[in-house]
Amino acid sequence: MNARRLGLFGGTFDPPHVGHVAALRSVARTGRFSEIEVTVAGDPYLKTKDVSPAAQRLAMAREAFDGLDLVHVSDREIRRRGPSYTIDTVRELFATGAFDDVDLIVGADLVGQLDAWHEASALRDLVMVGVVPRPGSATTLPPGWRAYEIPMDPVDLSSTFIRSIAKNSGDLSNYLPAGVVPLYQGARD
User: Among 92, 108, 116, 161, which residue's CB has the most CB atoms within a 10 Å radius?
Assistant: First the structure.
């Protein structure tokens, strides 16, 4: 029986953008994974200010990612009460028995924060980390984490940047998948 490896790509996705799509396509191309789960944070405890409702972020993520190779979008962190902790999601995934390995997929801009995550030492023992390159961000993890880089050309884009454009009624069509634009703009109107 072949080992089943899951790539876990979690986030707030407020909104999901073309950089996320490029990252997921690159993750799928590695050939490492049986499946890739995009998990939308229900209560993103590190981002408590001005976050769109979870149901809206889930709808946008499904619109952006559902057709991608190996990818499915999960509402598991939305269904779970309380703050969305990655360690809880990883434990839940292992408890299903469906996967032998879970790799956490993160942008290089987040690697320096991993030791500050909830139960970071337990998480470090359970996962490998696939690092998606980001312009201006090093891919070096804190000591003790097992990691590798996802090969791709970095995309210089963030949800924060997109929200700033949206506040000024800018055109989002170059930054968001086409189906996400009306969902995101409709919620902001």
Answer: 108
Output the CA torsion sign for 123, 126, 131, 136.
positive
Q: Identify whether 129 is part of a domain.
A: yes
Cα(129)–Cα(148) distance, rounded to whole angstroms?
6
Residues forming beta bridges with residue 94, ordered by sequence position: none
| 75 CB-near residues (< 8 Å, 6+ apart) | 40, 42, 58
Per residue of the chain (189 residues), give pLDDT as tens.
467 999 999 999 999 999 999 999 999 999 999 999 999 998 876 655 678 899 999 999 999 999 999 999 999 999 998 889 999 999 999 999 999 999 999 999 899 899 999 999 999 999 999 999 988 777 777 789 999 999 999 899 999 899 888 877 778 999 999 999 999 987 655
Tally of domains in the chain? 1
Number of Cβ within 10 Å of residue 135's Cβ equals: 11
Tell me the CA distances in angstroms from 175 to 6, 16, 145, 180, one per residue in order.
Answer: 27, 9, 32, 10
> CATH number for the domain including 82?
3.40.50.620
Locate 163 and state its tokens: 């929200």
Specify the pTM: 0.93
